[in-house]
């Protein structure tokens, strides 16, 4: 009997509830379903539940549906009146939707629905970009004549940012000047005034080191650029961008910009496979009349379009170092020094010195932009001094005995000892193998080391113009962003030609000893064809490289040459220079076979016109 009463009670409750939901209007019809849901959008806040509430007001029963099963709410349905749904959880970095819809009261009833968009972030504070490096190049404007090159003036440098060392930031480059004509304009942040001007193919500028501080954010590089004044700009070729991290080889970086003429801002968004501690940026022009301004590197929350991968450093043998010949009289010496501006410790040159002939066999050295940070400045007065790696008896005494009193202030810049030359009887002078100007920087260690006897040989060329032409071509036209490798050496056909060191004119001193004069000198060069591969030559294919050799006879018989023969008669493949030396040395031993066999004069800028 008790069960019967219980079921009757439930039936009464259900009928009463239905009657409440289906309240009729005065004419006996049901009212239209009404539904409001606020807010329409919501940002989930894990720390404040009151911000995760959705208010539903309806005159009928309602239900919910969710776009994602991982969205959690505290109620899925409700009755008429005002009700509150609370979002209790949802995934990070996601947007979901919650839809509330009315329940049909009869077959022809209209169903009403409202949707709420719910978003949850990553729980981190809003992203704030950090400027690591920015320079509008406008600290000062040049007041002299013409336009200064990078090694002549640094007053324009206005570098700022958390990755920049205040007062110590610098730029290195080739054929790049600072100009204020055709100032930057037409893009956000265009500063006007100064800009870098690239004066020809393979002109480049490299920034100083930018500290990244272990950032894990993607980076955005922006810069203004143009090909002035009216030429279309090709981002694929007119200006190339490379990155180098922690001393790694240069790696190309793609960027986008408008191809229209005039100034425009270029942008590259990238990250690293492995973030370096320090970064350098290099800009290389394939054309002249390219300009660059307003360079900036900052962190970003934008999605990177490329990942920069720096190849791990490999321990390659020195590319230009000739094969070593073990002889009792041969002494091998390497000198290191710091670059003038950036303070990098680099190999200045390696020499093979003949301690019996008291003169060098060869000097091998790299030529790279970092060696030119001091410009062409020569130490004054000339700092002739002994090589500290050799004894006085091993080397030519072509320095004053009071060399360590340099710069001889008490003597007006002149040494007290005049016995510092080779005897003049053979009309020979002190000739650099590695040119002093190729290690410019007055009073720098790099420049002073070129005055060691290790790097000096008796000089009396049959055709001096040939030697000076080639010596000038390298820094003026062959210099590039890749390293050039050079060996300059002496050929001793016999030991019959003798001069004496520690002499003054034809007068010898107690220290004088016989020194053999080379019969000829030679130079061999190796570089990449493009000049901007950013790769070690050991990683280059044969068609990416080029090599050339030059032979310079000495005048040891007092000849008086008539017409000077064309330089091309003294240009040879490197393999031919090796044969002239009797096969004693092998140059560039790590390059692919065949590179040393070819000798295309046209490959070497400006050589063709000077060779004929």
Would you write up a description of this structure?
By secondary structure, the chain is mainly beta. It has helices at residues 2-21, 445-448, 464-478, 574-580, 607-611, and strands at 35-38, 41-43, 53-58, 62-66, 72-73, 77-78, 81-89, 94-102, 113-120, 131-135, 171-174, 176-179, 195-198, 204-207, 210-211, 219-227, 239-245, 251-253, 264-272, 278-285, 290-299, 306-308, 330-338, 345-354, 359-367, 429-432, 456-459, 484-491, 498-500, 503-504, 507-508, 514-516, 520-528, 545-553, 571-572. The strands form eight sheets. Strands 10, 12, 13, 16, 19, 21 and 22 form a seven-stranded mixed sheet that branches. A seven-stranded antiparallel sheet has the order 23-24-25-28-33-34-35. The longest helix is centred in the first third of the chain and has 20 residues, at 2-21.
Topology, please?
Elements: H1 2-21, E1 35-38, E2 41-43, E3 53-58, E4 62-66, E5 72-73, E6 77-78, E7 81-89, E8 94-102, E9 113-120, E10 131-135, E11 171-174, E12 176-179, E13 195-198, E14 204-207, E15 210-211, E16 219-227, E17 239-245, E18 251-253, E19 264-272, E20 278-285, E21 290-299, E22 306-308, E23 330-338, E24 345-354, E25 359-367, E26 429-432, H2 445-448, E27 456-459, H3 464-478, E28 484-491, E29 498-500, E30 503-504, E31 507-508, E32 514-516, E33 520-528, E34 545-553, E35 571-572, H4 574-580, H5 607-611
Parallel strand pairs: 2-9, 19-22
Antiparallel strand pairs: 1-3, 3-7, 4-6, 4-8, 5-7, 8-9, 10-21, 11-14, 12-13, 13-21, 14-20, 15-20, 16-19, 16-21, 17-18, 17-20, 23-24, 24-25, 25-28, 26-27, 28-33, 29-32, 30-31, 33-34, 34-35
